[in-house]
What does this fold into?
Amino acid sequence: MRKLLNKLLIKFGLILTKAPTLLADKSLSTSESIPAQLTEKVTMRAATGTPDNELFRIFSADTNVHKWHHYFDIYERHFGRFRDRPIRMLEIGVFRGGSLRMWKEYFHPDSTIVGIDVDPSCAAHEIADQNVYVRIGSQADPNFLTEVNGEFGPFDIILDDGSHKTHHQIISFGALFRDALKDDGCYMVEDVHTNYWLKHVDSPETFIEVSKQMIDMLHEPYFDRKETQFRHGHEIALNEVEVSYLSANLDGIYFHDSIVVFDKKKRALPKSHLR
It folds into this structure.
């Protein structure tokens, strides 16, 4: 499994070389570069009330869904742009089937919602006549993920709410982002707070740590270069550069409490303009 994990990460230019920095069961360690006034301890209080949006109202009408309340505003922020047309969505993790029904009601009625799970009993939650499908298999099996993509993909949205094992999150992203996610698509991994709970950490680096590396990869075009190489009309301006697939197709990374979001879009070489 370790060899497979490394192979998938190397495909994206990520190599695991160190043990994970775990925060579980220990105090938070912060860089000395962070100002003291930002690391001072303050009180965080329990939330009151509930989210005020349509998706939460849909969620509240079903008894077979488990979601954290603060996710709903995040869903609206990143998924709202997909509601005006039929889409294809892949959700990793079916559980009791409630989330499949929730997404079916939230998105365009002609959308296709696909769920995958290792539990054979989840197949009962398929509603084929409403374009809600379930396939049984492991999110850590790239061959299975390729089969699902071949049958239903590529997808506008991929949501990983599966095992929450760190190596599963990493393998799924490596197997799906390039070939199973459409250009202008959205890949969301939720419940990443589990990366700080020891029972879920089973890889040399957590998904959170790998995501931090992807921030560097997002900025790969700038490595060992200077601003004038990107300036419009400058004599040394570059017309093209060699970068990783991820750098050339990752439009942005968004970190929320317990959620990491990746927007996919084929990028042009950045350009500056001096007037």
Q: What stands out?
A: The first helix runs from residue 2 to 11. The chain has nine helices and seven strands. Confidence is low (pLDDT under 50) at residues 12-26.
